[in-house]
Amino acid sequence: MSRNSNKAGVTRREAVTGLAGVALSAILPGAAFAQAQQQQSPLSLLGSSGEWGHGFDSASRTIAMPSSRFATLTSGTVQSLERAVGEYSQIVQRGGWRTVPESDRLRVGMQHRSVLALRERLIATGDLDRSAGVSEVFDSYVEAAVRRFQARNGITADGVLRESTAAAMNVSAQIRLRQLEANVVRVRAMSDKLADRYAVVNIPAAHLECVEGGTVASRHTTIVGKPDRASPVLQARIVEVNFHPFWTVPVSIIRRDLIPKMQEEPDYLTKNKIRIYDKRGRELQPEQVNWQSDEAVDYMFRQDPGELNSMGTIRVNMPNSDAVYMHDTPSKNLFGEDQRFHSSGCVRVQNIRDYVVWLLKDTPGMSRVVVDGHIKSGERFDAKLVRPVPVYWVYVTAWANPDGVVQFRDDVYGHDGLGIRPVAVAPT
Fold it and tell me: Residue 374 burial (CB < 10 Å; 0-12/13-18/19+)?
């Protein structure tokens, strides 16, 4: 290396060190500042070489993201929640955390005064280690910590501080503590009644877990009910899988959706292969129905199997008093959203083929190859589970894993009663 390049490297290091010193002196008084400056400099964040590229890669390789093997609901959920209540009680006693100023998409490599408050906020909940130091630089350690926070709060973990992430960060420690306390009560009644093998849909998280022996065998993104058509909390048993099912339109959807749709698009039923039957089972034509009245609710509407079917290729049958079920969907683009509250109460499952293989694994003659064959055939077929699988639809907005990682989700239906403004309404 030439003398000139060596000199340039020293100048860059000195500049970075000076930046951190200004930030530290603004926050820490006297001796505390001197000690912190001695113990931690930006060079330790960037790696032993002091080069930006090295440090900006290293943190992403060491971040401890929430583990996918831990189930939301197990026999140990209450104990984990109670530990989290204790931890958040201490955070509240220490004064909670300050809000993170609104900024326009802070990301790795940027320098901004708001990063100081962001670091403090991430340290408060253990997403960023205190040894990461004080600086206005959004380095790789901050990015990794933001991604961890996002993963814990059901936000796409891209490490960018947008308004939606800031909104989740700015829910107060007191509110988060009350959320944890509410969910301890919520899960205590069910966590000691679980079988060894079961499925759980956590509605606020919009995800499904297949659990065996207390460990998640597979996890699936789901789409659940809209706030005005909420998916119910329930316990049932999955008894059957229907390949290429018919879809019988519920009366509520006939009244709220189908009649208005037919008033706007008279050929809607025909285009979507939905047939009309009277009480005697006779098929009617759309023009025989008065769509300017509620006459249609007296008829049965059934959609033919196929690519247009609202249930996709598979329905998971779980008899219950709410007449809801789990199914595939042709609208798979919705699984990519953070806020997946689009259905009329039923639960749509991503990668449902894997879910069905797991449900049917104890059923003779229903291997994955056979399941794939039924899906490809396009023909109606019902597979009865030799051992029904318990399924729980739960409403858990805060939970903790055995490793101490605490997770939160929006109270989309308002069941917590804490008045939290959902992150979903924050611009993305």
Answer: buried
pTM, two decimals, is 0.80
Say what percent of the chain tops pLDDT 90. 67
**277 or 14: whose pLDDT is higher?**
277
Of 3.30.750.24, 1.20.1250.20, 3.30.980.40, 1.10.101.10, which CATH number belongs to 1-66+98-171? 1.10.101.10
Nearest to 221 by CA among 202, 239, 238: 202
Q: Closest Cα partner for 68 from 403, 368, 358?
A: 403
CA 63 to chain centre: 19
The catalytic residue among 220, 244, 327, 374 is 327
Whether 322 has a pLDDT exceeding 80, the answer reads yes
- In the chain, CATH 1.10.101.10 sits at 1-66+98-171
Q: Looking at domain 177-245+306-425, which CATH architecture does it have?
A: Beta Barrel (2.40)
Every domain range in the chain assigned CATH 2.40.440.10: 177-245+306-425
244 is catalytic: no
Which entry of 207, 210, 220, 346 is annotated as an active-site residue?
346
Q: Which one, of 14, 413, 370, 59, lies nearest residue 204 by Cα? A: 413
- Rounded to 5 degrees, φ, ψ at 72 are -65, -40
Which two tokens mark 22? 């200004």
Helices within 125-281 (DSSP H only): 140-152, 163-169, 173-188, 251-253, 259-264, 268-271
Active site residue 327: yes
The answer to which of 277-281, 411-415, 421-425 has the lowest mean pLDDT is 421-425
Q: What is the DSSP letter of 218?
A: E
Give the lowest-confidence range in 40-49, 164-173, 372-381, 417-426.
40-49
336 compared with 142, residue with greater pLDDT: 142
